[in-house]
Every structure is written in C-alpha cells, then in structure tokens.
Write a structure and sequence with these properties.
alpha+beta, Cathepsin B, Chain A, 4 helices, 10 strands, 32% strand, globular
Length: 211
C-alpha cells in the first residue's frame, strides 16, 4: 500500500494552509538567493512560531519582525546548512536546529522520524545545474506500508523556487533508489542530485529539553 504522510502542522485542500489557519507557502523571487529564509519561515510557521510566513517583511513587531531583522542581510546570497544552524539559534525563538549528514538512506530515515514527531526538516542537496547547491523544506514522506511498518522512499517538499502547490501538500519531491542515488522532480525539472544533509527544527518540552 502506497502512503503519503505530512507534517501535522499543515492542512491539505484546494490550497495548502497551516493547520491553525493562514497561508503556508512562501515563494522565492526570481533574482534573490533567499530560498533558505523562506523555508525557515515556513518551518517556524508549522511549529506555531510565526502566524504569517508570507508577508514577513511587512510586520513591525512580533516574531515575524525578529525573523526579518535577522534575514534581510542574507537575502541576496542565502545560507549554507551550517550557517542556517547558527541563523536559527540567533533568532532566539525557542527552537533548536539539529544538523545531520550521511548517506541518503540514513538521511531518509532521520527525516522520516523527525516528521513523524512533528518537526519540520530542511533538506540540502548538490546538483550539476542550473544552481549547484539547493535546499527545500520537507513536509512529508512517501512510502509503502509493509504490514505495520512504513518504508519511506521519497521526500515530499515545499520548494520556494517552485509554483504554489494546488490540491497537494507539496510542489517537489526527491525519490531515493536502492543504489543510493536520488532524483529531484518538480513540475518544471527532473535532476539527479546528491543529498548533503538536513536541519531539523525542534521545540522545547516542559522538562527543559527539546523534542
């Protein structure tokens, strides 16, 4: 049985929205390098830390203003995954970034566990063209149910450089094959890619740690 599982903070319909109300998809412009910042905003919205991940620059107060004040210096050139970890910490919004790297199957398993726990995950990969380094927000997994065991084989993502998803919870995907190779696919392109690592964003629990 083929299944798709999505982050519980999202709600599917004619338009993808946040479970607590409001638009989720924040789209990157054609000239900027700020895709990193867009998927951080979407991840924070899924965790309830932002109410408006789309019009972040136009808020004069609140968490949206905090994010924009930290984001605008990076907007043209973006952030690497290691820089992204520091960026999320510096927001001081009560979330913890957790970075993982390794072979594609290990990244897939880690992402599946994090999403099942309600933690949004940013996926970084390398490709030959048109841009060498890319990333997107993983919001779901696709896989097969073998008895009671879910075996994921694809990452379902929101890519700020793509079109707004309609009647779906994602606008891009990375399929992983048994030989360790991965392929990115959207409505516009299909490319062989190499997964570089992930950044999971966790929220605190009452005991003082993070989940």
């Amino acid at each position: 049985m083929l299944l798709q599982k999505f982050h519980p903070g999202s709600r599917l319909g004619q338009q993808l929205t946040l479970a607590h109300g409001g638009t989720l998809f924040s789209r990157q412009g054609h000239w900027d390098g700020g895709s990193t910042l867009h998927y951080v905003a979407m991840a924070l919205a899924l965790l309830g830390k932002l109410s408006d991940p789309v019009d972040v620059p136009y808020h004069v107060s609140g968490n949206e203003r905090v994010v924009w004040d930290h984001a605008w210096p990076h907007y043209l050139h973006g952030l690497t995954l290691s820089e992204l970890e520091s960026f999320v910490w510096e927001l001081n919004l009560g979330v913890q970034p957790v970075v993982r790297a390794g072979p594609a199957p290990a990244i897939l398993r880690f992402t599946s566990r994090e999403l099942a726990a309600g933690r949004p995950v940013i996926i970084g990969w390398r490709q030959r063209h048109p841009v060498k380094w890319r990333a997107a927000l993983a919001v779901g997994m696709e896989g097969r149910l073998q008895g009671r065991t879910f075996e994921p084989h694809a990452l379902l993502m929101l890519d700020p450089a793509g079109s707004e998803p309609r009647l779906a919870g994602f606008n891009a995907r990375i399929d992983l094959h048994g030989n360790g190779r991965a392929r990115y696919q959207s409505q516009a392109v299909r490319l062989a890619v190499t997964l570089e690592g992930v950044v999971s964003i966790r929220t605190p629990v009452s005991a003082g740690g993070y989940v």
